[in-house]
Hints:
Elements: H1 2-16, H2 36-47, E1 56-61, E2 64-71, H3 79-92, E3 95-98, H4 102-114, H5 127-130, H6 133-145, H7 150-154, H8 158-165, H9 169-176, H10 182-193, E4 197-199, H11 205-211, H12 215-224, H13 229-244, H14 248-258, H15 267-299, E5 302-308, H16 318-324, E6 328-331
Parallel strand pairs: 2-5, 3-4, 3-5
Antiparallel strand pairs: 1-2, 1-6
Helix pairs in contact: 1-12, 1-14, 1-15, 2-14, 3-10, 8-12, 13-14
Amino acid sequence: MRRLFSACLTATALAIAAASAQAGCAGPSLLDRLTPAERASVETAAATTPFGEGILWRAQKGDRQIDLIGTMHLFDPRHDATMEAIAPTLAAADLILLEMTPTEERQMLTAMAEAPEVFFITDGPTLPDLLPEDDWIALRDAARARQMPGFLAAKSQPWFLMASLGIPPCAMGDLIEGRFGLDKLIINVATDLGTPMSALEAWTTLPELFDEIPADEQLEMLALSVLSPDLQQEAFVAMLESYFQGQIALIWEMSRMSASFVPNMTEQEAEESFAMTQELLLDRRNAAWLPVILEAADTHERVVVAVGAAHLPDTTGVLRMLEQEGWTISAQQ
């Protein structure tokens, strides 16, 4: 069970996080590691996934309209072309729904000061005391590669450190320099236009999901979550190219296949870990978002939903759920 959760979270970082387009994130692709049979399997699964291709969609029901944008959370200069394409949609919106708005960002920063125990170990043994020495050294080095000081990593709660390690070292420069992903670009436009924004969930959602996992299992998940730098960078290169080709289901299936590169992971364990990933971090969140989206559509004429692209496809994705509620879904690209 512990190893399954570790692989689950590793795969989630690969599938949902995003890549930078800077030269440091260039190079070989994870797809190049796959055998012809593995690649064919990934491509076949992606091709049969509902709403598996595209990042711009529209849902219509009567005179109501929802525009949905599948985002990438980190910087890439090709976002400029996407922003140009969606500019009329954003200008016409009277509400924009996001995973997190500036309000939730401020709440999270306030919590770091007022409730630091959510993010950091404030009492008792820290990670170097709780983990085997080799595991701690690997985690410390991975954190340093992302410009996180060792002392800060040592005091991080497992969920917070795992989230931090989900960002590849090659993308850290962009974050530090204030270059962000599509979500932030949309927020900036909404702010300039004066368009109301609302969050689909509280910022506490992720730590609350981790709270469901026993502390000892979180530690083992953390210890097993460090991928080799080469493998992680290859995964982000593959995601980057697939995202801008609109191949969102391919990203997810590629990440499912990448579990085979986790040491001591059997095929059955990999499949079980992905089932957990979808249940905890995609399906449950999507289901919780649906009534928020529908309520917004009842009270606003033009709603925009901008969320991580992995939330849109598949039978439990936001698009299929809207379709099941009687909305007509059409691709906008």
